[in-house]
Each structure stands twice: as C-alpha cells, then as structure tokens.
Write a structure and sequence with these properties.
The structure holds 2 protein chains of 2 kinds.
Chain A lengths: L6 E10 L2 E11 L4 E5 L6 H9 L6 E6 L2 E2 L5 H7 L1 E3 L12 H11 L7 H7 L15 H13 L5 E5 L7 H16 L3 E5 L3 H7 L2 E6 L2 E7 H4 L3 H8 L2
Helix pairs in contact in A: 3-4, 3-5, 6-7
Chain B lengths: L3 H18 L3 H24 L7 H18 L3 H18 L8 H19 L14 E2 L6 H24 L1 H11 L1 H6 L4 H27 L1 E2 L1 H5 L1 H14 L5 H18 L3 H18 L5 H5 L7
Helix pairs in contact in B: 1-6, 2-6, 2-9, 2-11, 2-12, 3-4, 3-5, 3-9, 4-9, 6-7, 6-9, 11-12, 12-13
The chains are: A alpha/beta, B mainly alpha.
C-alpha cells in the first residue's frame, strides 16, 4: 500500500432528523483497490456512498480525496475531481439517447478525452447506442449509469447494488468488468448483498450495522465475527 | 426549419414586411410582444422545467424602469430600454433563491413576488416617482416605428437564445439537468450556475420586452404591464406551440394571438368559450404542443 490512501474518511457522521444514519465512520481506500461494503438494510451503506459522492453532505467528520477535504464540495466539483458512482435505482437521462447519456458526462466532467464507443462496448450497450435510455431494461439502465460514471474518467467509483436481479452469467460479466477497472488503477467501493459476487472481486470488506463500522477485513473472517453475525441475524 | 439563422431571417422578414401589407401595426406589435414573452418564458420553463407564474413581474419591471429612466435621466430611449432589461435581471438576481423551490412552490412564490412589485409600483405614496395608480406618461418619446423595431430585436434575441439553449453544449447540460439534476451534477454540470443563467436570461427578455412595450404605449396604467393575464397568455401560448423547442412558442403565440385579435375584440364572449375549449383540447390531445406532432414523427425541428 502506498503511504497516502486515495480516499480517507475520518469520523464521518450523518443524521436525518433524530436518526443517526452514519456514526463516526472512518476507513480508507487505495488506488486500484476494491472494497466491499456490506450490512443489513438500513445500516448506512448507500448513505456512505451518498456522502462521499456529494449527493448528501456529512454533518461531521472529514472526507479526504488525495489528501484534500471534499466534504463541503458540490456534486459537480466532486465529479470533476474524479469521484463518481452508479445508483441502486438507475438515474439516467431517460429522454436522451444512450450515446447522449455518455456524451453529457464526457463533455462536462472535463477530465480528458474518453472513447465513447469503448465505454458503450464495455457496458454492453453498443447495439443500443441510439435507443432512448428510458426504453432500456432496468439492468441496462444501471449499466448506463456506470457508463455515465466511466465517461468522467473517475479515480474512485462507488457502485450501489449493481448485481441485484442479474443472472449468473451477467454477474460474471460485471465481476470481470469491475476487476478490469481496478486493474487500471481505479479504486472501487462496491455495495452489494450478493456475497458470492463480492467474494469474486475482493477480499476486503467493511461491514456496517446501524451506521457503525462493525468489522473491516476479509469476507471469510467477517462471517465468523460475532458482531457481524449478530447484526445480520439479530443478537 | 432546422437552422437557427433561417428561423431568425424568416421572423425578421415577416415582421418587416407585414406592416406594409396589414395596416394595424398595433396588432402586429402586440403579437411580437407576446411572441417575445412566450419565447422568454420558454427559455426558463422549456429548458429547466421551472414555470414562472409571475413572469409578468419582469415585464412590468422593465416597463417601469424604462419609463423612469426616460423621465428622470433623459438618456436615449434605447439605452433606457436596455436599462429596463437590466432592471429585470437585477430583480431576477434578488429572486434567485426562489430557484431552490420546486414545482408549484416555485410558481406560487414567483407569482407573489410579481404582485409585490406591482403593489409597490402602483402605490399612491410613490405617485411622484412611479405615478402610483395614475400610471406613467412618456409621450414625449412616443415613436411607434422605432419601438416596433426594438420589439422585433427583442424577439430575435429571445429566439437566438432559445436556439442556443437547444443546440449548444450549454443546452446539453440543461437537458441533462431537466431530466435528472443529481445525475447531471455527477456528469460535471454546474446545475446551480446553469439554472441561474437561464433564469436571468429569461427575466432579461421580459424586461426588454416590457421596455419596448412601454415605449410603444408611452402612456399606461400599472395594470397594463402587471396584469396576470400577460403571464397566463405567455404560458398558454408557449405550451400551445410546444415548450423546449424554438419554433413552438413562436407559432403558438402567433396563432393564438391572431385568433384573439380576430375574435377576442369583436366577440369576446365567443372568444372566451372557444379559447377555453382550445385549451381543454390541447391538454387532452397535445399536452406537448403543436411541435410534438412533428417530433413524434422524428422530424428534427429546432
């Protein structure tokens, strides 16, 4: 591991009204690393991604990207720094064509030239390039979200439950795609309920329970940790 | 009609030739006014989805600012009209925080803001400045032809802006923002900045139109430039033609205003009836306006 991680969270908290959704989270991610983020529903996985990507602002703590504080930056600034994400419920530009969806990000993120055809091929939508995005299946729209993120030449990608509803062959394809992105030096945080899928792409997971980090380490060790077992099954 | 320059040329030629063919220049002038307002409203509503019910507030601001500049500074009238546009932009800046509201909340707050401006301007206590309820007189600069040409320039400017929003990189960001602001932000679009620019452009067009309108009337009561009917007409005209396009609002305003000029004056009772019917039919069968007839058939319209 290099000395300075690409991303570091220091005591990051987020509350919605009286509910503390993230409670002093601290962890770091290095370039080219894949980290799995797991935990029961409501444990704060998506909120973690939301505060890193700027969709929500953290109430306390610091988020450092390449040593620079980003927790107060606007969404587009964070995107232009090289952090991007996909969504559990896809949020593509539904009335635009598939290619235009990618073009928007390639145009505005200002992070160097990208090959739109290569991205379309990578997410398996080359044949649908001229289709209206809203007419795609939900899974295709999730891939389009990923493509929009890739068109910004990200250094850190946050992937929110991309595997749900996919068959084993499709899951295998995505696992290979994510691994190839990591091999290019992109850091990935992958929220996923499908542990087999996570097991194929990473050995390092962070387990959340009620907004707190319960465990950090290998997936195998996590399954034997009493706190983790209690959080998933109920103590 | 895919090329902005062609649309602008046709528009200019039409309104330069028409006065020689059709004698009632005041009808043509008012038609241009509503075309400019429908287009100006389209800039905001068609490209960002914010529906400004109080759009008339900018029009009235422009009309009054122009008149006050004429009265108190004696600058050339054209400069005063530009000042009217600028005043509307300043009001737009002050009202900028309204953009944080969404949907109906924005529309209602904007409507309230326009009424505040109206009641300030029309206040008896300000009669030595704005004329209060007794209105404005700048008949010393009355110039129907020059003000007609000015309104045409405002209409062309509004249409040029709409074409820019529709076809440029900036417009691509607007379309993205309109469909999903969060994803647009993630794509690197500075949505707060883009939205504010469009809002100010839209306000500025209404202000300039108000200035040219005040110049053309040269004597008017506050109601004449603050009546809510102006907002309603601009909205209905733009929707009828098709918002988010360049030609739609022009077509909608031209057709519906012509209809109004033919029937609305001579037989107002039938006009209201037919107008209501037309709006119901529009909402039921063509919610995206006349232009959607072409867009549905994949015709590339501006």
């Amino acid at each position: 591991m290099s000395s300075e991680p690409l991303l570091r969270l220091e005591g990051v908290s987020k509350r919605f009204g009286g509910l503390t959704v993230l409670d002093r989270q601290s962890f770091s991610v290095s370039a080219g690393e894949i980290v799995g983020l797991v935990g029961p529903n409501g444990s704060g996985k998506t909120t973690t991604i939301n505060v890193i990507s700027g969709v929500h602002q953290a109430d306390a703590g610091r988020i450092l990207f390449e040593g620079r504080e980003i927790q107060r930056l606007k969404l587009f600034r964070i995107a232009r720094l090289g952090i991007n994400r996909s969504f559990q419920v896809p949020k593509c530009f539904r009335a635009m064509r598939v290619r235009e969806n990618i073009e928007v990000a390639a145009t505005f993120a200002g992070r160097g030239a990208v090959d739109i055809d290569e991205i379309l091929a990578g997410i398996g939508l080359a044949d649908q390039a001229d289709a209206i995005a809203g007419a795609l299946t939900v899974n295709q729209q999730k891939m389009l979200d990923l493509g929009r993120a890739l068109a910004t030449n990200p250094r850190l990608l946050l992937i929110d439950e991309i595997g749900a509803g996919l068959n084993p062959a499709e899951l295998g394809g995505i696992a290979e795609l994510l691994k190839s992105l990591a091999a290019r030096g992109i850091a990935l945080i992958v929220v996923e309920h499908l542990l087999d899928f996570l097991n194929r792409i990473t050995d390092r997971v962070i387990v959340l329970g009620a907004g707190r980090m319960l465990f950090e380490g290998s997936l195998k060790a996590a399954s034997q940790d009493p706190d983790v077992v209690a959080a998933f099954i109920g103590g | 009609m895919r090329y902005p320059a062609a649309v602008l040329a046709i528009l200019a030629a039409m309104f330069l030739v028409l006065p020689h063919v059709y004698g009632n220049q005041s009808v043509l002038f008012t038609m241009m006014t509503f075309m400019a307002l429908a287009q100006g409203l389209n800039l905001l509503y068609g490209f960002t989805g914010y529906l400004p019910f109080g759009y008339v507030g900018f029009f009235g601001t422009g009309a009054y600012a122009t008149s006050l500049l004429v009265t108190f500074t004696g600058m050339p009238v054209l400069v005063c009209v530009l000042g009217g546009g600028l005043a509307a932009v300043v009001v737009g800046l002050i009202l900028g925080p309204l953009l944080r509201l969404s949907g109906a909340y924005f529309s209602i707050a904007n409507l309230a803001a326009s009424q505040i401006i109206y009641y300030v301007v029309a206040n008896e206590a300000l009669k030595h400045v704005t004329g209060g309820p007794y209105g404005v007189k700048i008949e010393q600069v009355y110039a129907p032809t020059a003000s007609y040409a000015t309104m045409l320039a405002v209409l062309l400017l509004a249409t040029g802006l709409a074409a820019y929003f529709r076809r440029s990189r900036f417009g691509l960001g607007l379309r993205a923002m309109h469909q999903d602001p969060i994803s647009a932000g993630l794509a690197g679009v500075d949505i707060v900045r883009e939205r504010l620019i469009v809002w100010l452009a839209s306000a500025g067009i209404a202000g300039l139109a108000g200035g040219a309108y005040a110049w053309n009337l040269s004597v008017f009561y506050p109601d004449a430039v603050f009546t809510l009917q102006i907002s309603v007409f601009a909205i209905v005209f733009a929707l009828f033609g098709g918002v988010g396009t360049v030609i739609g609002p022009l077509l909608g305003a031209a057709l519906l205003y012509a209809f109004y000029a033919v029937i609305g004056v001579s037989a107002p009772q039938y006009f209201e009836l037919l107008y209501g019917l037309l709006i119901v039919l529009l909402v039921l069968f063509l919610p995206n306006g006349l232009m959607s007839l072409l867009i549905r058939r994949n015709v590339d319209v501006l």
